[in-house]
Amino acid sequence: MIQRTAASVEARHAPDSGLTWQQALATAINRPETLLAELGLSPSLLTGAQDGHRLFNIRVPRPYLDRITPGDPNDPLLRQVLPLDQESETPAGYITDPLQEANHTPQQGLIRKYRSRALLMVTGTCAINCRYCFRRHFPYGEHRMSPDGREQALDTLRNSPEINEVIFSGGDPLAVNDQLLAQWVSAIEAIPHIRRLRIHSRLPVVIPQRVDDQLITWLGGSRLQKVVVLHINHAREIDDAVKQAAQRLQTAGATLLNQSVILRGVNDSAGTLAELSEALFDAGILPYYLHAFDPVAGAAHFDVPDDEARAIVAELTAQLPGFLVPKLVREIPGKPSKTPLNF
Ligand SMILES: *Cc1c(COP(=O)(O)O)cnc(C)c1O
Ligand code: SF4
Fold first, then answer.
1. What is the model's pTM?
2. Which residue ranges have their beta carbon within 6 Å of ligand 2?
3. Do residues 23 and 148 both lie within one domain?
């Protein structure tokens, strides 16, 4: 008996205990009281967490939980997933669709804002629910793709020679099964003017087991140029398993980039961002964008004002080589590209 208990405790805490990514998804923590108990956090956080959870579900996969320091309510990884009292406050100017995406969806699942690239909303699901997400209010149900919708999206791509890059987005595109992704890729590959496949995903970070043999098979086998843009906000999100996942993606021919969001209490200093850039480079990933915070309702407590963000990036620029400094940008509806916030 005692031996069995010891073995199961060990298995639960070992990130590489043979868990498949599907199991990691299915066993993600989805109740505020479980999150607090697992991390030994004060029950005084429960009411706020429950209120926030009702607005946008808690979801924390265990491989990510393992990187959070128990007992520390200010842990920068915890802050990204734990709803606080403040989520129920919505100061003036914080809205549900700051990027006005509802106006930019000419058809199911395909968003086209920029000339040469089209963004395909492969799914509305994510492996983790980030409290600051600008899509936390997005009406995903309306964008679920039917077989008809899929054909329409492909027709648009076929009939738009100016599009040379398709971006898999969501939700998190890697939250769907490899069979579906492989089907998308082969349909897209058959369109001669599409050169590049880009995947925007946080899954290889929060569940590194996602980068398994099946994923490598369809990704590595494609004629398309491949770019994977990860989403990492803090150096401590990168552990050995994430490094391994990054390496495997590179082996499949992918160029690895990272986008972050500047967030109060997570990465709002030049020192923290410099550590992040160094850790990214160490894992073979280059910093790409640092997104200025979008005023999404429920996430005002993460806000870093633009002038402060500019000053932080100016300091970062003085510390690091240019290739380790992400571009500070904001998405402004109606513009032909992301807009740099220069300093
Ligand atoms: C951000 C974004 C892109 C990609 O922009 P890049 O500057 O090429 O990274 C494409 N389409 C949409 C709708 C986007 O929001
Ligand atoms: S993984 Fe990305 S899309 Fe999903 S909740 Fe987090 S920020 Fe939002």
1. 0.93
2. 126, 128-130, 133, 135, 172, 202, 231
3. no
